[in-house]
Amino acid sequence: MKFTNRVTIICIAFNHEKWVEKAMISVLLQDFEDRELIIVDNGSKDRTPDIIKEWVKNNTDKLPVTAIYKSKSVPYCQLFNEVLSQVESQFAVDLSGDDFLYANHLSLSIAKLQQTPTAAFVFSDAMILDENGEQSTFYEREDYKELAEKTLANDMYETLIRRSYISAPTVVFSIDILKQVGGYDATLSYEDFDVQLRLVRDFSIVFSEHVGVLKRKHGDSLSASQYQRYKSQMLPSTLRVCEKIREMNRNSREEAALSERVLFELKHALWSANFEVAQGFANLADEMNIKGIQFSLYKLWLRVRLDISWLYVKLT
């Protein structure tokens, strides 16, 4: 049975004992009534499962909530798809156990989606909170007009190839469309780069001019390990997404955007001494017939495997 206008918040937590209760409270405090929470502990080694159990016990009369406890960690994209397959709502939110939804996020986001029923998702602005307590928005206020224009012009695909442009924690998906494209790619270590591209390739999206999510930036977050020295978990997935982009591209502008992205990722793979995946980016660049002194220098760097990752750590 399909529940029209209902939104399911899928919150996956792993070692989030400091923040998971606030994440669940943020769902409870939403001013959008027709919502449910599915909270998943993904094999945490800290007190996260105990905190979830206690909170669920005390709040099941206030909010439809389902708790799932994994004895061992499951790859994130695979786990999200498993949960998504059981959901019968119209909309879905992928909430990390260390993030926080502002109270009007669902109501404002879903109002936008209802205005554009064919949209694959809506996104908004986010407040980024670092470990020092400093806050800043993901976008500048003057960017809002450009964001709205890009979504209307349907040219977000090329933009996303070049750079990360959408605040992933703010996304509210249309479940039917997300399932239509197969959900997340379960072979990847992270989801947003790939799923956003696959959705904007063939569907419209919309932007809502509100700050919807508090996103915590800390050393234990997955994004912090994007260019981790020697053993990045994310770079191999980024390479795979770039290979998929090449298959999806339809014109020379998109190929140029991919060339720019491949060289960017190759540079960071070299700086962080992830030489094996750097070779993969170099091979892809060769297949794309990328030329120029920049790529030649990168290939020389790769050939001698010069490790200056200690400097990269200091600079970043």
From TrEMBL:
An annotated Gene Ontology molecular function: transferase activity
Source organism, top-level taxon: Bacteria
Matches recorded under Gene3D superfamilies: Spore Coat Polysaccharide Biosynthesis Protein SpsA, Chain A
Residue span(s) of domain Glycosyltransferase 2-like: 8-139
Keyword annotations of the record: Transferase
Name used for this protein in its record: Glycosyltransferase family 2 protein
Source organism: Algoriphagus aquimarinus
Lineage of producing organism: Bacteria, Pseudomonadati, Bacteroidota, Cytophagia, Cytophagales
